[in-house]
Amino acid sequence: MTPAPRPCAGPLLPIRREWPVAIPPSSFLILFLPRPTVSPFLSEQLARLRTGTLTPLTDFYAQQRDVFARWARRQFGTPADQAYDVLRHQLLDFYDEATDGRLSRWPADLKAYLYGAARQQLTAVNTNTLLPEQQPLPESEAARRQLVLRTLVQLPTDSQLVLHQFYFRGSNFETLAGKLGYANASVARRQKSDALRKLYEALNRAGAGGTAELLAHLTEVERAADARMSESEQEEFDAQLLVDGELRQACLAYEQYSADLRWAAGRENLRLRLESLDRRVAQRTAAQLRIRRRQQRQRLRIGLLAAAVLALLIAAAVLLLPRRSASDRAWRSFDVADPGLSAALTDGRPLLTQSMEQYRQGSYPAALHTLRRLPSQALGQDTFLYYNGLMLLRQEQPEQAESYFERVSRMPSSALAGPAQFYLGLVYWQQQKLPEARQALQRAARQATDPHRTKAREALQNLR
Q: Is the pTM value of this prediction over 0.70?
């Protein structure tokens, strides 16, 4: 197990002891005033962020990303992509303030805090004004940090991963070897040393202060910081610090750049995770859009296929059933409405009178039911059969009506034989029995009286 890193700077100066100073009487009251309490959870959140836990910020971005975009569009007319940039920028600024000490406590309402900062930024953009000045770091320190960040992101990917894990995640060499797939802790240590030397060499080429002295003593300073010296070596190193000013400056530069590197690695890690979340959301949205389009295409294909099948069925119906449709229309045009029995014939017979009234009103089922309630001796056989067939014909039941009309047509002494022959022809026609219909209409044209004879002749001409 690798021991925890220790500061490389030894006891450079004697310890100064300060005697207590006198406190004015009016100041004693301040000591007893109640101090604002800070939630332990909020304080813990800030500490976790400074030690490599970015989950509170990444979770906030995942939950508020679309909500913030709608809010920015409604309040400032900002497009969604620009709104995402603004929120990421605010989260990175929040991380900077938390890690460099400008933020002394975690906000009780993180959403209100970040939305307020974003409102200031969006208002400044819309009104073309400058943002109110924040409490910045000293110019030299801010420039050095930015230089470390730019240099870090230019390193090879493997070097960046090693430095991220070691300085931001706080991984020891055993953990580092397990996470990055190195053979053992010694290999991980060498990889970390190589990545760190590449960083300092790049900083030295960029003119960063203190890197020349640091590179000259980097090996021993790094070994001291990583607690890889034996007890005798550590004592010799501490003694050398007291007399070697260049070594002392190298050690101070190492501590300073290590702090900058922890900040830069954390900030870059946060930026990459926020952008990765954006890419995942964009990929998921694109996948959902592709699925919807595929479903729409499938529905369209099914609809076109159904329309094609329906068109084929309609075409088949038009091609295969034209004569039947024409025949249906044809026989109806030659149908003659029978007025039914006169009042003189139905007088004194209430059921017959009721049946004829229902027949004239078009209530053919009721009329047929009433007619069949009559006693057999109350009405002639030919009249009873004729009106049974006529009412069945009016209900479009030609198969049943056929037998009634046929029986009446075989009664030559009956006055209803001619009309029955005519209606028998219409019944055959309705059933598409055209030869039988022609023969029946020919007999009706020879035997039936007007208007059936005239209509029978006209129907024969249409059948030809």
A: no
